[in-house]
Design brief:
The chain is an alpha+beta fold. The protein folds into five domains: 52 residues; 99 residues, PAS domain (Beta-Lactamase, 2-Layer Sandwich); 102 residues, PAS domain (Beta-Lactamase, 2-Layer Sandwich); 77 residues; 134 residues, Heat Shock Protein 90 (2-Layer Sandwich). It contains 13 helices and 17 strands. The chain has a five-stranded antiparallel beta sheet. A five-stranded antiparallel beta sheet has the order 7-6-10-9-8, sandwiched between helices. Strands 12-14-15-17-16 form a five-stranded mixed beta sheet, covered by helices on one side. β6 and β7 form a beta hairpin. α9 packs antiparallel against α10 and α9 runs antiparallel to α12. The longest helix is centred in the first third of the chain and has 51 residues.
């Protein structure tokens, strides 16, 4: 009996211990389940936040197209209260023209059981359309056995506005280009023609299909192709405007001269390059220029011949004077003839310079002065034997009118020094200084000879040479300063382009 009772107590204690263990396990599982539930609720909260404030609008529609779920972004896009939007048909927010398009997309999803994409316009903001890109996905409701629809909407209004602006800009460009009198074209960077306006097509006598892509290149004159390709490539490389004169075959199957200009630009994607340009027919202008150039060459040849003949005639006169000198005994007459010969030589030398030069309007005056003075020293070689020459001449070009005047002035002053400043073969020095500043020429001729009589008035002198100097200076609105202080110095200032009007 005692054994049975002892055995029963043991079984009861074992049962109590087992129950406590089970109770502990249940408590542990309960705590674990509570923790998992908390984590799940936190995860759901995070998902809800992500779902609600995602950058895309999310809606769920029932089989009849009514809203049964919407995130906060979607409510803001449709400008409705989130809770108040339930049961509202989605087509209520669509523009009238897009309702049929939505039903068609809905049926497509139902029958294909796969997602589809479409663009819609919504009437939600002050009657101004909002454009959206929609992804429609089927969602099976296993309770009701129906198919719901999940919509993901992205606002593409700004993109649409940009596209519309680009289309309007292209339309304006085409209207302007088609009405423009000049030829307008557009190409890619590989020289494929993408557009040509009516003016260009009329000029070429071609349809666009005949010259599109690289067909327009075949119309370029063979001698101008390499030049065009080089300039075209350089414009792209340096991203600069280019301009070129070239020949292309026109509607008469003849080569006409044009000026082709182009400039590179980028499309809105920032990666694709294009070139847009214009062309002007300059054939008539080119023909006129060729005729004028031919006429100019003929006139240059004629003018050159005139200078050559003038120079020869002056040399003949100089030679005649030289022959006459052989028969003149009177010393004064001989000096007059020599002076005249020197003056003629100074003018002949200018015509000779122009004849030998490629320029017919100017001569290098410093070179002319050196040759003129060298001739004078040779003419008066006995008097000039002991005279040192010092020249400081600016390298300047002067036209024939002022060159003749200035040459005659230098001729008279140097001749005067050689004849009168150094008697009895005395030693001395003659200086010539010539400079240019702005539009003025400064000439200084001086010598350290015996000087001139006191109180000399150049305007009242009986010397033909000095009178000639004074007259030439007046013709060019010039100024003359004369000094005799240990040396004789003539300082002359001439205005290059202001000849005096003589009555």
């Amino acid at each position: 009996m005692v054994r049975k009772m002892t055995h029963g107590i043991k079984e009861r204690n074992e049962l109590i211990r087992t129950l406590k263990e089970k109770e502990n396990q249940i408590e542990f599982q309960k705590a674990e389940l509570t923790e998992r539930q908390t984590e799940l609720e936190e995860s759901l909260d995070r998902y809800a936040d992500l779902y609600d404030f995602a950058p895309s609008a999310y809606l769920t529609l029932d089989e009849k197209g009514r809203i049964i779920e919407i995130n906060q972004t979607g409510a803001e896009l449709l400008t409705v209260d989130k809770k108040g939007s339930y049961e509202i048909p989605f087509i209520y927010f669509l523009s009238h023209n897009d309702v049929t398009k939505f039903f068609t997309a809905q049926q497509k999803v139902r029958h294909s059981n796969s997602r589809t994409t479409e663009e819609f316009s919504l009437k939600v903001k002050n009657n101004e359309p909002v454009y959206v890109h929609a992804v429609i996905t089927p969602v099976h409701n296993y309770v009701s056995k129906n198919i719901n629809y999940r919509l993901s909407l992205v606002d593409i209004t700004e993109k649409k506005e940009i596209e519309r602006a680009l289309i309007e800009s292209e339309q304006r460009f085409r209207i302007m280009a088609e009405s423009a009198p000049v030829m307008i074209w557009m190409s890619d960077t590989n020289n494929n023609l993408l557009y040509a306006n009516s003016s260009k097509l009329r000029f070429l006598g071609k349809s666009f299909n005949e010259i599109k892509d690289q067909g327009w290149l075949s119309l370029i004159h063979p001698h101008d192709k390499d030049k065009f390709f080089k300039i075209f490539s350089k414009a792209l490389e340096e991203w600069k405007k280019f301009s070129i004169e070239m020949r292309i075959k026109d509607r008469n199957n003849e080569y006409s001269w044009i000026i082709r200009e182009g400039v590179p630009y980028l499309l809105p994607d920032g990666k694709t390059s294009r070139l847009i340009g214009s062309e002007i027919d300059i054939t008539d202008r080119k023909k006129t220029a060729i005729l004028m150039e031919k006429s100019l060459r003929e006139k240059e040849v004629l003018l050159k011949e005139i200078h050559h003949r003038v120079k020869n005639n002056l040399q003949i006169i100089s030679s005649l004077l030289n022959l006459q000198l052989n028969f003149v005994i009177n010393k004064e007459v001989s000096e007059v003839l020599k002076s005249s010969q020197a003056r003629i030589r100074s003018m002949a030398l200018i015509h000779e310079k122009i004849y030998k030069s490629s320029e017919f309007s100017t001569i290098n005056f410093s070179e002319y002065v050196k040759e003129l003075v060298s001739f004078l020293f040779k003419t008066y070689r006995r008097k000039s034997a002991n005279i040192r020459l010092d020249m400081n001449l600016a390298d300047i070009n002067l036209d024939i009118n002022i060159s003749v005047s200035l040459g005659l002035i230098i001729n008279e002053l140097i001749t005067n020094s050689l004849k009168h400043a150094f008697p009895d073969e005395r030693k001395g020095e003659i200086k010539i200084f010539l400079s240019e500043k702005n539009n003025d020429l400064e000439l200084i001729v001086s010598d350290n000879g015996v000087g001139v009589p006191n109180g000399l008035d150049i305007k009242k002198t009986n010397s033909l040479g000095l009178e000639l100097v004074d007259t030439l200076i007046e013709q060019h609105n010039g100024e003359l300063k004369f000094e005799c202080n240990g040396k004789t110095e003539f300082k002359i200032l001439l205005h290059k382009n202001q000849p005096k009007n003589r009555k």
